[in-house]
Amino acid sequence: MTDPIRSVVSFDGNALRPVPLWLRMRRIGVHSRAMTDNDIFWIDSHAHLTMVEPGEVEATIRRAREAGVGGVVTPATNPADLERTLHLGRDFPSRVKIAVGLHPHDASCLDASFRKRLEEAAGRPGVVAIGEIGLDYHYMNSPREDQLDALEWQLDLATETGLPVIIHNRDSWHDLAPVLERREGSLSGVCHSFTEPPVVVKQVLALGLYVGVSGMVTFRQADNIREMVGAIDLDRLLVETDSPFLAPVPHRGRPNEPAYVPLVGAAVAQVLGKDIEEVARRTTANVERLFGCGFGRGAGGASES
Predict the structure, then answer these.
(1) Measured between alpha carbons, how far is 101 from 118 in angstroms, rounded to an integer?
(2) What pLDDT shows up at residue 305?
(3) How far is CA 283 from CA 210, 223, 237, 240, 258, in A?
(4) How far apart (Å, rounded) are the C-alpha atoms in residues 147 and 33?
(5) Where in the chain are the domains?
(6) What stretches of the chain show up as alpha helix (H) in DSSP?
(7) Tell me, what's the pLDDT at 39?
(8) Which CATH architecture has domain 31-292?
(9) How many other C-beta atoms are found inside a 10 Å radius of the C-beta of residue 45?
(10) What is the C-alpha separation between 118 and 79, in angstroms, rounded?
């Protein structure tokens, strides 16, 4: 199958030659122009802003805004970053929405004290989801049983609060799928930065969940990710950076940031044969529908960049 990322053709002089997608996007200004009310509006559905140096967060959000990214969903991952995540939602209320949860790497930290903290945090203003939660059997930083216990408890919390979930999965779908299937109809959410094959994507969609696509879709050898994207209904697709990880081409190997999510969206557009504007519009609508929130389209206050 032709690689959709490398098959973009552009007229250059007297010859036709393949042009990398990132260069095509730069030429038409996908991620370099300031955003106005009439411009394309993206939302980064998953970015770890707590991993940005505190003094750089405002500049990071400003660069995103200038690139056409008007909103970011940022998840908590452990006891150490919970309060800072909540503060980001307080400091940038129209730009940053918050998820609260415990990443599977830190599942062993879910004691009675942290359960109370999460229960209280779930009711805070700006909190739109329970996450990042799930299973990770690649690193096994927490034992399997601890991961499963933490996942089940946090899924219960999501059901009790009516909040959607942000799900992490790595080398664990064989355990994760039955957990989610038992709760079919009572949960909403997204499987973020998903990498499973189309047959699994169909299972995710059948459960009523969304699928998050990260910068991996731009990687030269990631035909499996592009095949997966081709199986996703655009009305159930979210774009994300998962920053500071997984920077898209041409930034691969460097720290990622929300300003790069238009490159992810452009790659999705290429795979699906859609206009970039349509992908931006529909993925933004998907985020706002799933998380039940809106992001400010206006200039915002000085404190919000």
Answers:
(1) 7
(2) 56
(3) 10, 22, 6, 10, 15
(4) 43
(5) 31-292
(6) 21-28, 57-66, 82-91, 112-121, 144-161, 173-182, 198-206, 223-229, 261-272, 276-291
(7) 73
(8) Alpha-Beta Barrel (3.20)
(9) 34
(10) 9
What phi and psi values does residue 156 have, to the nearest 5 degrees?
Answer: -60, -45
Residue among 41, 47, 93, 125 at smallest CA distance from 305: 93
Gap between the Cα atoms of 70 and 43, Å rounded: 6
Token pair in block for residue 137: 């059997």
- Residue 93 CA to chain centroid, in angstroms? 18
> What is the pLDDT at residue 23?
53
- Helix residue ranges per DSSP H, 3-96: 21-28, 57-66, 82-91
Task: Point out the residues of the chain with pLDDT beneath 50.
Answer: 1-19, 22, 26-38, 299-302
pTM assigned to the model: 0.88
56 φ/ψ angles, rounded to the nearest 5 degrees: -105, -5
